[in-house]
Amino acid sequence: MGRAPCCDKANVKKGPWSPEEDAKLKSYIEQHGTGGNWIALPQKIGLKRCGKSCRLRWLNYLRPNIKHGGFSEEEDNIICSLYISIGSRWSIIAAQLPGRTDNDIKNYWNTRLKKKLLGKQRKDQHARKSTSQKQEILRKGMRENINHMVSSSSSDYNSNQSPYWPELPVLPPVPYSNEEPRFNDHASIRKLLIKLGGRFSDDDDQPTNGTMNTNLQYPLVSTNSLVQVQPLYDQQINMLSSAPLDVLNTTSSLPETLYTIDAADLSTLQGQNSFQAGLEQMICNNPQRLDGLEFLCGDILVNHRTGNTCGGSSDWGDMNSLVLPAVASGYEGLQQGTLQECAIDQLRYLGP
DNA sequence: AAACAAATCAACCGCCAACAT
DNA sequence: GATGTTGGCGGTTGATTTGTT
């Protein structure tokens, strides 16, 4: 049996909202709230709209303090960084940017930022070939940008929040409606982290004195101190500038695997001189954990799977050379397939 | 000025998880 | 536990706007 429609499609208006509809919806919600039921709401106020449509309209446009357009450089950086870190979790990314909606950010990413980054990426590749010095300058610049973001975002956006990076998620900026979800308690945060893919040890249900349980096994970005985390910034930047073009071009989110890197892995990574070396070590320890990450560490993984020595000299700087003909022939095709398929293609190409 | 292409963005669709019955 | 309902999310579409020839 199929899913029941949320509304009577035949009797529901579609398309752009009129000012009258907006006014009706806005004034009702401001006076009465949503009543906890979006589906019933349009009937209550005499709107021939689907409840979902009302919700979307309210959240994306009618809600107070919504900003449209005019993304700042800083917001760009935040979006890029978070996308690299967590993928297309637009709602989570939006939670870091007060006044921005997931839809807005998603559109902005798809229409502008992705291209902007892609352009940068291409420039980076060119620069890397011409001179490694220039690359260092570029990275330094990006590091500075990120450092600046970290230091200024708290004052510009959420003066009472944790830095947006790398602790994810941070508290969302003052939701307007008290019906909206808040993450200001341990349980909510825990729930959100679980949803994100973070894992908790069995005894995590113990009271935690109002602080996050340290047994939380959350991604690469689980440490609290910026000082500790700084190398990871560099690593992310390295990954960004040296990963195949496909990384930035795909609309898929980054592999879930990113979220299952636990504390042991983290220490492995941090114990190495470089992220690359750490990742190699991690792959040696537990290769299946990297399934789905092939596009980021293709040569290492391939080396491992083909029996080559782990810890050998994988040239991350030249990872682009591993974008094999079948894959490199055009990233249009790539977009249609999954990253896993891409990786499988690469493996097939290399053979056993 | 007209025609066309590209970019933008509001809105829809369908899936999934959580919750209620 | 099974089934139905709702909210939320990410991906996609298509109308509109903007830029180019």
Report on the structure:
This is Transcription factor RAX3-like. It is found in: Nucleus. Keywords: DNA-binding, Nucleus, Repeat, Transcription, Transcription regulation. It comes from Coffea arabica. This protein has 352 residues and is mainly α. The chain has three domains: 54 residues, Arc Repressor Mutant, subunit A (Orthogonal Bundle), CATH 1.10.10.60; 133 residues, Arc Repressor Mutant, subunit A; 108 residues, no CATH class. The protein contains 16 helices and no strands. The chain binds a DNA duplex (21 and 21 nucleotides) through helix 3 and helix 6.
Output the structural class.
mainly alpha
Q: Provide a count of the helices.
A: 16
* CATH class type of the largest domain: Mainly Alpha
CATH architecture of the largest domain: Orthogonal Bundle
Distance between the termini: 45 Å
**Assembly of the depicted chains:** single chain
How many beta strands in the DSSP annotation? Answer: 0
Helix content: 40-55%
